[in-house]
Amino acid sequence: MSRRILTMSLLSLAGLSIFSTSSATAQGRNVSGACNSEAKAIIWLKLQKFDSFLSSWKCDEKLRITSFKVGNSRASLVRGNGLGICGATGNCPTWVVSRSMGRPKIILQAGSITDWYEFNYRKGSRYPDLGLRYRIGAGDFYYEKYVFNGSNYHLVSCFSETYGTDGIQRLTRAPLHQCS
Fold this sequence. Notes:
By secondary structure, the protein is mainly β. The protein has helices at residues 38-47, 59-62; strands spanning 4-13, 16-25, 30-35, 63-70, 73-80, 92-100, 103-113, 117-120, 129-135, 140-148, 153-163, 169-174.
């Protein structure tokens, strides 16, 4: 079994923050990459643990980020991008990263979603509800709704969405215990 040494350092270069990650193993595998955000850097470290991770990958090419408002702060939706990370249907792994006690924290690790997601802000809630969509076939999708519970996002509902050859949308709500 290989032993990994993971490090993350914040470099300040002419006022620009660059997050550098590096990984080394006893097997001699040495991987490094620069991420342009702290949220990407924490996910990049997770990805490096997988055997399918390629040393030729570049953080800012393989991870995309969307920042969104949470109270007086911001959180980041980080999504995989491209071959090797995403599946054939265009679904890519997705995470939400927020700061907790001054440190980045993953508050949602979702399955692979399409490039469709939504933020729904409810009155009185600092964190928006999240809607994530998965492609399961040519005209078939799966939708999940997540709500923040004070420390993490948790799944509260799901439904399948199918478009027939007639173009008409059909929705089928699933009981919560059947949600993934």
